[in-house]
Amino acid sequence: MSLVITNLHAAIGGNDILKGLSLEVPPGEVHAIMGPNGSGKSTLAKVIAGHEDYEVTGGSVTMNGEDLLKLEIDERSRAGLFLAFQYPAEVPGVTMANFIRAARQARLPKGEEIDAVAYYKELYEKMDQLGIDRRFTSRSVNEGFSGGEKKRNEVLQMMMLEPGYCVMDETDSGLDIDALKVVASGVNSMRSPERGFLVITHYQRLLDYIEPDHVHVLADGQIVRSGSKELALELEEKGYDLLKEEVPVAG
Question: Which of 96, 141, 179, 205 has the lowest CB atom count within 10 Å?
Answer without folding.
Answer: 205
